[in-house]
Amino acid sequence: MKKEFEDFLNAISWIAEHAITQLHLELLKEELISNHRTTGRYFIHTIIFD
Question: What are the φ/ψ torsions at residue 43 (nearest 5 degrees)?
Answer without folding.
Answer: -160, 160
